[in-house]
Automatic annotation (TrEMBL):
The keyword Methyltransferase applies. Gene3D superfamilies: Vaccinia Virus protein VP39. Belongs to the class I-like SAM-binding methyltransferase superfamily. EFM4 family. The lineage of its organism: Eukaryota, Amoebozoa, Evosea, Eumycetozoa, Dictyostelia. GO terms for cellular component: cytoplasm. Its EC number is 2.1.1.-. Residues 63-194 form the Methyltransferase domain. One of its GO terms (biological process) is methylation. Keywords: Cytoplasm, Methyltransferase, S-adenosyl-L-methionine, Transferase. This is Protein-lysine N-methyltransferase DLAC_04636. GO terms for molecular function: protein-lysine N-methyltransferase activity. InterPro entries: Efm4/METTL10, Methyltranfer_dom, SAM-dependent_MTases_sf.
């Protein structure tokens, strides 16, 4: 598939609705209170650890000063892992208030109270312009693509990322997806506006099945162009 080919979309799903995630995180919050179970970690613990470790090793990263946003943070486990690696300026946003409640509870339990979580909706976001050095997404773009208004929401998502990434430094956008291929993500974010430059992939363990090789997710790192 070439970079210019059209993205093939899947059908809309309840996974693209706020009601679904409110209910899901409400259950996970109750479960955490009862048993300490943090709930589902999207793409698994191995993917999470590999992703965060690779980000921490990127050239020019200053862990204590770098402003990081996890967009669509869910239970906040990505930022917990980043905190364990020494990052200090961490924020997570999600449109589900229940997700934010869960993320705050987990961060407090893990004694990472410096992580900031806040409620924010991409369709009417109040996130400050030109602020973050790194924006991370692990599954949020996938969920947006399952909504009934996917075209509108995907455009708002891209505009939000472009608007809120800092122009003072070589800021980074790091996206992990299981619904889109490398080529599809490049085709969407490396558009005619030339707001991003592709830097590298994050390499995950490769599985073998029926003579074929592959990975269950893909992570691309883009640099914002001034």
């Amino acid at each position: 598939m070439s970079d210019s080919e059209e993205i093939i979309e899947v059908d809309s799903s309840v996974l693209g609705t706020k009601d679904h995630w409110d209910s899901a995180y409400d259950r996970e919050l109750e479960c955490f209170k009862e048993s300490g179970d943090v709930g589902e970690i999207w793409f698994g613990k191995s993917c999470l650890k590999t992703l965060c470790k690779e980000v921490s090793k990127l050239e020019g990263i200053r862990k204590e000063k770098c402003r990081v946003l996890d967009i669509g943070c869910g239970n906040g486990m990505t930022l917990i892992e980043m905190a364990k690696l020494g990052f200090k300026n961490l924020e997570g946003s999600d449109y589900s208030e229940k997700a934010i409640d869960l993320a705050k509870s987990i961060a407090e339990e893990e004694q990472f109270s410096f992580i900031k979580y806040f409620n924010d909706d991409i369709s009417q976001s109040s996130i400050e312009d030109n602020y973050y050095d790194i924006i991370m997404d692990k599954g949020t773009f996938d969920a947006i693509a399952l909504s009934e208004e996917r075209d509108k929401m995907k455009l708002l998502y891209k505009q939000l990322v472009e608007r809120t990434l800092s122009t003072a430094n070589e800021s980074l956008f790091i996206i992990t997806s299981c619904n889109y291929t490398d080529q599809e993500l490049k085709a969407y974010f490396l558009d005619d506006q030339k707001r991003f430059e592709f830097i590298q992939n994050v390499q995950y363990p490769v599985f073998k099945f029926g003579g074929s090789k592959g990975s269950s997710q893909t992570t691309l790192i883009f640099k914002k162009l001034k």
